[in-house]
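Re: weekly structure request thread

Next one in the queue (179 aa):
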Amino acid sequence: MKKIIVGSVLLAVLGASPAFADKGFSAGASLGYSNISIGDSGINVDFNDVGYKIFGAYMFTDNWGVEGSWLDFGSLSENIAGSNAELDADGFDLYAVGAFPVSDTFDLFGKAGIISWDASASIDGIDQGSDSGEDLALGFGGRFTGASGFGLRAEYEWFDIQDTDSAWMFSVGFEYAFK
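Done, posted below.
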């Protein structure tokens, strides 16, 4: 139910972007490298793939705002003792964002929030089960925004997902600020 609410809020914010144009609304997409490490029963597995996300943000001031996104960690697979283990994971996140403007066009940001995630696993195509939850999410990065409103951003996000040793994503993407 929480995923439906977070998704609905994100879609409503994205759909209402022209109404927020003068107050700091931005939207974009990023592509990057994702990793989920699991150490269970003495077997350590590192799942890596190309992940992506679609996001929207609203900055109340130059320094404070909120951001929400849907992210997909990719099709994560690893060969374990001759068997193909696959992990599919995605989620919605919601952050409070703090920004530090370095110049008129570049700022650094940090964010803290929550991720609502779903994951399912299989070995050699046989379903091994699924899980979901809500956990801590943190991130930091930098963004450049040109006079036209188009910009680039790079960020690192870390997720404290239960039953994992680590879950993170480094991504680079574009952003459009509705000014």
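The beta strands are 25-40, 43-59, 64-80, 83-101, 106-123, 126-145, 150-159, 166-178. The longest helix spans residues 2-15.
Next request, please.
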